[in-house]
Amino acid sequence: MMLQWTVIALFLATAQHIGSVSARFNSPTPGAGRGSYQRAIPATGELQEDSLRAIREFLRGHKFRLDRPIAVQDIYYVVTAFRMSDNERLAVPVVQVADSFAIMHEPWQFGSWDPVAVRWLSFGGDATDGLIITFDDPFEGILGSHTFRIDGRHLMATHHDGGDSCRPAELRDLEGDGKTELIWYTEDPSGGDCASSCHFALRGDRFDLTAGWVNVSEWSGQEWVGAEARYPDFYADLADRYRAIGDWLSERGEFRPCDNLYWLKDRGIFDRWAVRAAALAEEKR
Prior knowledge:
The chain is α+β, with helices and mostly antiparallel strands. It contains five helices and 13 strands. The strands form three sheets. Strands 1, 2, 3, 4 and 5 form a five-stranded antiparallel sheet that branches. The protein has a four-stranded antiparallel sheet with strand order 6-7-8-9, with no helix packed on it. Mean pLDDT is 83; it is low at 1-43.
């Protein structure tokens, strides 16, 4: 399977897809939920005709034919381009350096599936210092977020979702203080069966969740660091939602999308996650 390329935050849903995507990102990625995207930079930006012309000429010198810009912020660009040798479409991150440009990372291969978001952003301050690329197509098994930090003329990977996630990681400002937190999902019991009607029901407005544990990390300036115990209100709310899902699973009614699933025979898993979240909520009180 193949990928497409944004904040940046990027992520994958099955072990098979994770392997192929990680290989492509390393050899050559709108969340929902409580909180807000106050630090996220819009996925598109102003690109003047002279800048577009200069990038086109720069890429031609590297044997690429410009397709279009998909993320623009300050001196940073992500564009799609066709490699002249085989006409393959790639995503190329570029930074302006004096009167020229530099390619910040080996181009990414998206194939037929574009990401739902590609954005330059600020992880911890006012200056643009990161990128997020997010895929969210559970039907194709292409799901996950990748984040990168800017290191001079280069991009360094800081996060990618694993195969035990059926919801891409998100960047939020949980406390409205201008600081960005990374919300990422693990421990999904389905083994990558992310297109089930049960997953869609859980991700809907009623619960705004997924079958899995929710992690919170803070930006240290260089990497994402686990910080679950610092957000008691978030985990108190999470505990309530886990309990609500447990109650819903035990109800009788016509619409029962989570019945008879081989990976959800253990209905007590949401109650155990609720206990775990409640314990985190109490740590700082």
